[in-house]
Amino acid sequence: MTLLTEKQQPEKKDKKEKELGFATRAIHAGQIPDPTTGAVTIPIYQTTTYAQEAVGVHKGYTYSRTGNPTVSALEENLNELEGGAGCACFSSGMAAITAVFSTLSLGDHVLISEVVYGGTPRLCNNILSRFGIKSTYVDTSNIEATRNAITENTRLIFVETPANPTLKLSDIKALSEIKGNAKLVVDNTFLTPAIQRPIELGADIVIHSTTKYIEGHNSTIGGAVVSNSKKDNEDVKFIQNATGSILTPFNAWLTIRGLKTLELRMRKHSENAQIVAEYLEDHPKVSKVLYPGLASFSQAFLAKKQNNSKNGYGGMLAFELKGGVEAGLKFAKSLSFLTLAENLGAIETMVTHPATMTHAAMGKEAREKAGITDGLIRVSVGLEDPQDIVEDLDRAIKSATSL
């Protein structure tokens, strides 16, 4: 058995004590060498159930749908990095989002950023609406518009910042000051706690698709919910158990391994993305580049204010390719080693044409209102040599636009 039951956890340090650095906590939080064997890497507890000495007498675990030591180690690690009161890890990012929305009741109202990952409105519009939960989409970067959209029944304000795929930012602190009785939920998938810590800015709940940067190697599907109150964490953990949506031990183990290099990876993702964004900004066949690290980015000041470290502005960017859908599709077919894929946040650079891929389910009018134009290309900049990334993008752009 590892350290993972509540009684076995090390005592929390007094707040006056100096907090260990992010990289140190990413490597050590929630983990000690296995007391049985001395193994430095936490074991994969690939088990369904656990022996009990007597009824109700056990070592903290009874059944792996309810809790598993490997999963608990990951939960402790993520909770420490986000600065929460508790964490629950799920079988996917959408399972994590669903768990948070499952805390709602008939007649409750949710405000959602108008630009979000396509799976979120699919869940709200096609499933939760059948249970009497109303969703309204608002530009959460506009504080006054958000304030005006809050009703007496608003229970959640769900924000993606930066937004997928337009990189639009929402001011987390300002939203926390107008939320009233609603809980502020922030999807922190794009930046991770290595760059942005929403709880410190006033968020009540932080969500991750751990599939992306947290694990970072295109090897798992997973999600996480970090709560700023024990009550919220207990509610989410109850849903995790009741719905059977806990992360698997093996995927938890792979995700723990990815977390150990999170800060290094995010710093390099940011460095490469800055180089690519600056190159694209000067390209004659690119009409617009969206990246928070550029001086031309309309919310550059907010990006700098919400970043909690010197690890840059993340690895996600988008650019507008002249020529619309036709150019976008030709561009996608012209890539050499860069990967055309509906994912992001891994060591490989991945390119997506949102209008025909991730956001194809949205009508053209709704897409354009959200800033997802026909020629928009989303790039998850990886860890390859940045010059190689630039050259492959350049070849594809020239092929798509006959430059």
Written account of the structure:
The chain is an alpha/beta fold and 403 residues long. It has 2 domains: 6-259, Type I PLP-dependent aspartate aminotransferase-like (Major domain) (Aspartate Aminotransferase, domain 2); 262-401, Aspartate Aminotransferase, domain 1 (Alpha-Beta Complex). Helices cover 34% and strands 14% of the residues. The strands form 2 sheets. A 7-stranded mixed β-sheet has the order 1-7-6-5-4-2-3, with helices on both faces. The termini are far apart. Residues 1-13 have low confidence and may be disordered.
Which terms would index this structure?
five-stranded mixed sheet; 34% helix; Aspartate Aminotransferase, domain 2; Aspartate Aminotransferase, domain 1; alpha/beta; 2 domains; seven-stranded mixed sheet; 403 residues
TL;DR of this structure?
This protein has 403 residues and is of the alpha/beta class. The protein has helices at 22-28, 69-82, 93-101, 119-126, 143-149, 172-178, 230-243, 249-259, 262-281, 300-306, 324-333, 364-369, 386-401, and strands at 86-90, 109-113, 134-138, 154-160, 183-187, 205-208, 223-227, 286-290, 316-321, 339-340, 350-352, 376-380. It has two domains: 6-259, 3-Layer(aba) Sandwich (Aspartate Aminotransferase, domain 2), CATH 3.40.640; 262-401, Alpha-Beta Complex (Aspartate Aminotransferase, domain 1).
